[in-house]
Amino acid sequence: MPPQIVRLVLLTIGIVGSYLVARFFLTPASFGQYGWYRANALVEIATPKAVYVGAKACDECHAEEIQKVAKAEHKNVACESCHGAGQAHSDNPDRNKISVPTDSLCVRCHETDPSRPEWLKQINSKDHYTDQKCTECHVPHQPNEVP
Amino acid sequence: MTMEITNTIVQVLPRFEGYVYPNEATVQPLWGVLIVVYPYVTGLVAGAFIMASLVRVFNVKALEPVYRLSLLTAFAFLLCAPLPLLFHLGHPERCFEIMITPHLSSPMAVFGFVYAWYLMAVLLLELWFDYRCDFVEWARTQTGFRGLIYRLFTVGVTDVSEPALRLDAKLSQVISIVGIPSAFLLHGYVGFIFGSVKANPWWGNVLMPIIFILSAIVSGIALCAFNYLVLGWVRRTELNMRCLDVMGMFLFYALVVDAAIEALDWGHRVYEAGESFQILQYLATEKLFYTLRVGQALLGTAVPLILLGLLQLFRTRFAEIVRKRIYFASAVLILVGVLAMRWNVVIGGQLFSKSLRGFMSHKMEFAGTEGWLMAGALMVLPFVLLAVMINLFLSTKLRTCKRETTGPLPA
Amino acid sequence: MKTRISRRRLLRTTALAAAGVLGATLARTVKAAVQKLAVSSAGPKGYEPTKHKWLMVIDVNRCIGCGLCVEACKKENHVPQGPNYFRTWIERYIIKKPKPGSTRGEVLVDSPNGGMNGFPPATVPKEEILHSLYVPKLCNLCSHSPCVQSCPVGATFDAPDGAVLIDPKYCIGCGFCIQTCPYGCRFLNPITRTAEKCSLCYHRITRGLKPACVEVCPGQARIFGDLKNPVPNDPIQKFFATNRVQSLKPYLGTGPRMRYAGLDEEVR
């Protein structure tokens, strides 16, 4: 065998061999379990804590109020849509108060807008009782009722 | 990343016209100048190698004087090729993942293997078979650091008998033949990375890998001509005019083919005029006016075509010194033109929104990772490496196994 | 350069190398087992990815453009605040009345800060508007995701339960997936320097919650459900039964599973 060929074959075996060894040791543990990815990633991605808790968590303490909302026009609006993320409040209700929205939130949804669908009740904040707050005539949880 | 720091001090608002998807309105393009430099450099590698294979595979004896220079050029540029990619990655420390768990449905995943194959099985082997005789001789006679390098490159094989050298030549030819599709793969996969993106109408079409390979060949030949001319100038020696003329000829015909295919791409787009045509037309004529119309088309293609074409038709009418100047000018123009082409493809594809309703504006940084300075440094580095290699492997002071030919380079 | 290597030395080197390899294999097995124990206890217990198939669909007729979803998403997933990092966003399409002789009027599209703080009043007077609509955008949950196809390392993937996820510990930040997504739903997170996109709030849905955007949407424009475990009066089934639906860019062959009801042809 010519010496060049011998040397090259040895080198090839060495290089390919070390690649295969490296690949064996460096491939992450759960790789390939479900597909071409680390299956552990599924668990890692599912680990963080939720920031918005969902209505069930609110229901634990505020069931009565939720019942009232459920009978009125805002029945399909989630608590956290208006009151913001509830995790902090849910963890420690006394220390972390839930936010109470202001008028600006009402118009965020209800301002007249040609892009908004017809089923939504809309008002033009420039015309609609400009010197009064929304809550003077509407109860947020039961919008058609007067306070 | 630097943009985010800047944003905390002064709000640098991303600029766009029309409508762009919010995620597209970045201050810097996702793939910046580093991704322009990478295809440029691998294109030069592939082109320089094709130039060298013209000698070994197609037996163009006139190009023998630049054979070794072409191979060394390819080698120097290949060594620098992964750098722009490494600097561009969000997590360069995880770069090994591409070789450990390559997702083979992605054209990018083949990079590690194609690069390793090309570097080791093609370029280094071909260089080794060609230089082996010299390495053995130089290892014997040279001392110190140089001697160590030569001894290393003999890889312990010191047989330089006639049958061994004949085997070297035969294997070198086999490698050359294998090297041509390998070079096409090395640069073609980059073209395929862009050509496979159906989401982007500027990139995703069938001609993209072909255009990339053809412009790579053109740029590689131009680079070899440029290096040959500069080396002759630096060493103040006579150049082999026949070699230069043949290089000029191949450069001209390669440029003709490249220009034809790029014109086909343009013509087809204009004729078919699909959904994206309106926005791409504005992109090509307005946003990319200087880099596309002036840089790539006029200066990079039309002017060299005319210059080289004149030389093809009326070679004898031009004196040697004039021909040298024309080759030099054409080579420089083509090199700039092909860089402009990479810019137009990569950056151009990120200047318009995938909603086909708007355009983004980007301002290039100077000293950041994706800035002018970095791009310049990465393009100068291969020349520095090449200078070292020329000193080690193309030294006029060292005797070579092969017969001498005229020119600044030992054959 | 041949030197004589004694047989004893050769044997000893080989033995040491073999011992090293075996030792490393053992260490790796132990490490994997420990990892499995440690990591699996942190994830949601009892969640089997192959037993669910999540889907979100959008009823554009119900979107009021309040932007609460965009805000909730950013808070829930700790998305950077900048104007070009959105896992979901809202677009407003204003289609003007056509000029005499024209089939369709001019179309104006905008998405100020993704719609996160609602939309400013339209610059077009009401009389000139023929139609106007708000369109929520997010990952289209493609069945032949070009993003998954293009990831060179396997950092983004189709989870068995229908979500298209990114492994932030494995992503190398090359940006290829961001380039290949035709819907513009991916971005490069400047802090983690990895790709990021809507994960269907994976950490919520695996615990029986709804994605944050679905939770806070006051108009029920975003409808979410499990195709493998439909609830009674399943909103997704109702959506498909009562609406004619469309997907975005179907001609690209990405197989987007997400569907829209009430789109206009101008929505891309």
What does it look like?
The complex is a heterotrimer of chains A (147), B (411) and C (268). Chain A has 147 residues and is mostly helical. Chain A has helices spanning 3-26, 40-45, 55-70, 79-83, 87-91, 103-110. Chain A is built from six helices and no strands. The model of chain A has no long low-confidence stretch (mean pLDDT 92). Chain B has one domain. Chain B has 411 residues and is mostly helical. The longest helix of chain B has 34 residues, at 162-195. Chain C contains seven helices and eleven strands. In chain C, a hairpin with a 5-residue loop joins strand 5 (156-158) and strand 6 (164-166). Classes of the chains: A mainly alpha (147), B mainly alpha (411), C alpha+beta (268).
Secondary structure layout plus pairing:
The complex is a heterotrimer of chains A (147), B (411) and C (268).
Chain A (H helix, E strand, L loop, with lengths): L2 H24 L13 H6 L9 H16 L8 H5 L3 H5 L11 H8 L37
Chain B lengths: L1 H8 L5 E4 L14 H24 L10 H14 L1 H7 L8 H4 L10 H31 L2 H11 L7 H34 L12 H28 L5 H32 L4 H11 L1 H25 L6 H27 L11 E4 L10 H22 L18
Antiparallel strand pairs in B: 1-2
Helix pairs in contact in B: 2-3, 2-4, 2-8, 2-9, 2-13, 2-14, 3-6, 3-14, 6-7, 6-8, 8-9, 9-10, 9-13, 10-12, 10-13, 11-12, 12-13
Chain C lengths: L6 H34 L13 E6 L8 H10 L11 E8 L10 E4 L18 E9 L8 H5 L5 E3 L5 E3 L9 H5 L6 E2 L6 E2 L5 H4 L6 H5 L5 E5 L8 H8 L2 E2 L13 E2 L7
Parallel strand pairs in C: 1-11
Antiparallel strand pairs in C: 1-9, 2-3, 2-4, 5-6, 7-8, 10-11
